[in-house]
Design goal:
Length: 199
Amino acid sequence: GPVLLDYSAKHPDVRLEVSVSNHFVDPVEEGFDLAIRASSHLRTNLTTRKLATARLLACASPEYLKRNPPPETPENLPQHNLLAFSEAAPTSQQWRFERNGHNSTVQALGTLRTTSNDLLKQAALRGQGITLQPSFNVYEELRAGTLQQVLPNYDAGSLGIYLMYPQRRNLAIKVRSFIDMLNGRWGTDPEADPFWPGS
């Protein structure tokens, strides 16, 4: 969002049309100039550039953690209300954690499943359970203390943030200027997480 608004302020002559969706967008077939996607496994024949990495962080509100003993291991998570991101794939409700070479998989069953990370965050902020979120969606709340990280000593995986656009030699000037604005926006190491200082 802030990137788009910065671009619009710098280029008021360009009209932006922004579509936000969880489904995979093919810019060629659907008529988009470019797409930005957060994904753990991206397979496409489009031109792609990895911009940054976002860690997945389990988190809950301080109020929830006062009422419910914080889990010490992933195996404790089924005792909690797990607010899960839901996609068509059945594995989307599986949370995976790794520590010292030991892997744990938890079936995230709770009172809310949705394709909206913002709704999951709002439910967690209201003290309704634990959610697994990409760092870019919760870093402000974690820094403010309105959410707290759960199981901070475990690695819950990450998402790559990718720029995708058709394989065109001569990109439109407006598209090239947007890509130029993204260069270095989140640092120069695409494997680093610029949203979470604990990474």
